């Protein structure tokens, strides 16, 4: 499957770095929700779901973690370790996150509110639907 990365412009000067996220500009949808994962324990794997409609962009703003992305045909593993690079998680892409560094802060920008009915949490159901 094709991985869609979103390079984010860094506004840097002698004081440090700044990245701005703006809906419909570098984030390709209207932003409805932002959440972030931190203090993730060693050896933890999370995610294990796909969304029916939700579009998300994940950014490791600190540290690193890995993603398994699976569109039901291909599985791709990627490392996110750059605060200036987002990855798009389209609907109907099964994803799992793992190997979080101790300092990892994984931020996710989402196109809609939290809605449990948009989740597909069973892999066999996911494969039937794709
Ligand atoms: P969960 O779906 O288990 O996280 P993941 O799939 O990434 O491993 O979510 C953990 C808890 O947080 C669960 O009780 C639902 C809640 N939650 C919200 O309330 N709002 C949100 O936006 C998200 C993503 C989760």
UniProtKB/TrEMBL annotation:
Highest taxon, organism lineage: Bacteria
Gene3D superfamilies, alphabetized: Jelly Rolls (2.60.120.10)
Residue ranges of every copy of the Sugar 3,4-ketoisomerase QdtA cupin domain listed in the record: 2-129
Entries under Pfam families matching the protein: FdtA
Protein name: Sugar 3,4-ketoisomerase QdtA cupin domain-containing protein
Organismal lineage: Bacteria, Pseudomonadati, Pseudomonadota, Gammaproteobacteria, Enterobacterales
